[in-house]
Amino acid sequence: MARTFSAKDEEQLRQLHADGVSRNEIARQMDWSVGTITNHAQRFGLAFDREAVRAATDARQIDLKDRRQRIHEQLLDLAERAIDRAQSRYLMTGWTHTGEPVAEWLQQPPARETKDLTSVAVQALNRAVKLASGDSRA
Asked: Both ends of the chain: CA-CA distance in Å?
């Protein structure tokens, strides 16, 4: 069954428009198509300022670039920490046959832990490279 654009929808559209929200974002928030929002906005005498939208888009792109840079740095830090742990002394703990706790320092982690830490480092470095190259699949 088709929905109709109600007075409540009109009020919400007017408020979002007054708040400077873009046409696409209004459509998303109100769960209507962009075309429907455009038609009703025109009917209500509302116009979307292309320059304001362009400025908001530019600001969003700058924010996303900064965010990608922060994530890139975090991935490199993660890789570095994993590599450091793979090359550091390792505390092996366990229990004796009588139930007593035991601990022993090893010069490096056991093979399984070294493999896991190396895998984490490689994955983090691969993601960081993809992110730095602008690959959207990173």
From this structure: 41
**CB neighbours of residue 39 within 10 Å:** 13
For the chain, give the longest Cα–Cα distance: 83
Tell me the pTM.
0.57
| Residue pair 131/66 in contact by the 8 Å Cβ criterion | no
For residue 113, give both structure tokens.
């832990």
Which residues, in sequence order, are CB contacts of 13 under 8 Å at separation 6+?
26, 30, 37, 40, 41, 44, 46
For residue range 59-90, list pLDDT tens digits in order.
888 999 999 999 999 999 999 999 999 999 99
Task: In whole angstroms, give the CA distance from residue 18 to residue 42.
Answer: 14
